[in-house]
Amino acid sequence: MDKLDAIIKEHGKSPLPVLKAAKAEYGHLCKDVLEAISEKIDVPVSRLHGVATFYSMLGTEQIGENVIYVCNSPSCYVNGSLNVLEEFERRLGIRCGETTADGGVTLEKTACIGCCDMAPAILLNGEPCGPLGKKDIARIVKSMRK
């Protein structure tokens, strides 16, 4: 895990930045990665696991090649984020928290992403998108199916 050494060199021993960088590098924070981080920064695995499972954009499960986080903040909710989530579920054929069978897309719901001016908004592979309607969702899903 030479890459992990580079991550720690860049981010120090603060768990959250190390976990975020490790997630970006490895795709998810599996048991082996958490154990290696634990040894290198001297933080118990249980604490790292707690942080990884608390923040919706970290996580310990394998995710798809593309990740959609639907914002569920009050601003996005009153502007139709539930409809956005349901439309993604319908078009992708999966439920929130699942990944398509081909591993192409993971759909998640998350707390505020800081894009209230774009409500209802999503993060698509880390990039904010919004406001979204059904045509926007159709275009996004089509672009991921190429």
Describe what you observe in this structure.
The structure is a single chain. By secondary structure, the protein is of the alpha+beta class. The protein folds into two domains: 2-54; 66-144, Glutaredoxin (3-Layer(aba) Sandwich). Helix content is 49%, strand content 12%. It contains seven helices and four strands; from the N terminus they run H-H-H-H-E-H-H-E-E-E-H. The protein has helices spanning 2-11, 15-26, 31-41, 45-54, 74-78, 81-92, 134-144; strands spanning 66-71, 105-110, 122-124, 127-129. Strands 2-1-3-4 form a four-stranded mixed β-sheet, with helices on one face. Helix 1 (2-11) runs antiparallel to helix 2, helix 2 (15-26) runs antiparallel to helix 3 and helix 6 (81-92) runs parallel beside helix 7. The longest helix has 12 residues, at 15-26. The chain is elongated, with a radius of gyration of 16 Å. The model has no long low-confidence stretch (mean pLDDT 91).
Share of helical residues: 40-55%
Radius of gyration: 16 Å
Number of helices: 7
CATH class of the largest domain: Alpha Beta
Mean pLDDT: 91
Largest sheet: number of strands, sense, barrel closure: 4 strands, mixed
- Counting DSSP E segments of at least 2 residues, the number of strands comes to 4
Poorly predicted regions are none
Calculate the terminal CA-CA distance, rounded to whole Å: 33 Å
Could you name the CATH topology of the largest domain? Glutaredoxin
How much of the polypeptide forms β-strand, as a percent range? 5-15%
Count of the separate structural domains = 2
